[in-house]
Design a protein that fits this description.
- By secondary structure, the chain is an all-beta fold.
- It has a single domain, classed as Tumour Suppressor Smad4 (Sandwich), CATH 2.60.200.20.
- The chain has no helices and twelve strands.
- The strands form two sheets. A seven-stranded mixed beta sheet has the order 2-12-1-11-10-7-8, with no helix packed on it.
- A hairpin with a 2-residue loop joins strand 10 and strand 11.
- The protein is globular.
- This is TIFA inhibitor.
- InterPro entries: FHA_dom, SMAD_FHA_dom_sf, TIFA.
- One of its GO terms (molecular function) is deubiquitinase activator activity.
């Protein structure tokens, strides 16, 4: 029997709309269980052509939680120069964060939404890339702040009290 792969739907946007930025982004990429690297280096899986981007800027790392038969993911920052904004949190070099089913990510002017569609196979996952003609995040400079920005309007951050 064929086992369903987990699918990451990744939407990308950059305000310059320069076709060269996303020229090396494949429409789809089948991947094993090693981290998916994002950056400007030729050996990254998602290669983006931006001079301000690190050669290896971040990675999406699959793992399996104890007792679960599904792959889940965390985002890890590999850049020493820049920070990465994920779902309202600013991450710096070597910091990582588990991803939820829908994630808003911003780095080096790039806006990225990662939606995880779970599958039963533990042997790998598939990434489907989509280039967005319009912004994906309401505040494009969000990665430059440490303040929490709720993706759910009007709700306080978890653990902030009444």
């Amino acid at each position: 029997t064929e086992r369903a792969l987990t699918v990451l739907h990744v939407s990308l946007y950059h305000p310059r709309r320069d076709p060269a930025t996303f020229a090396k982004v494949p429409p789809q990429l089948q991947h094993g269980t090693n981290p998916l690297l994002v950056g400007r280096a030729p050996d990254t899986h998602l290669q983006l052509q931006l001079p301000c981007l690190s050669r290896r800027h971040l990675s999406l790392e699959p793992y399996r939680e104890k007792g679960s038969a599904l792959l889940t993911f965390c985002l890890k920052v590999l850049s020493r120069r820049g920070c990465v904004w994920v779902n309202g949190l600013t991450l710096r070099f070597l910091e990582q964060l588990p991803l939820s089913p829908v994630n808003r990510v911003a780095f080096s002017g790039i806006q990225m939404v990662v939606r995880i569609e779970g599958g039963t196979s533990l042997e790998g996952f598939v990434c489907c890339f989509h280039l967005s003609p319009s912004p994906l995040i309401h505040r494009p400079q969000a990665e430059e702040t440490d303040e929490w920005e709720s993706t759910f309007q009007g709700q306080p951050p978890p653990g902030s009290g009444p």
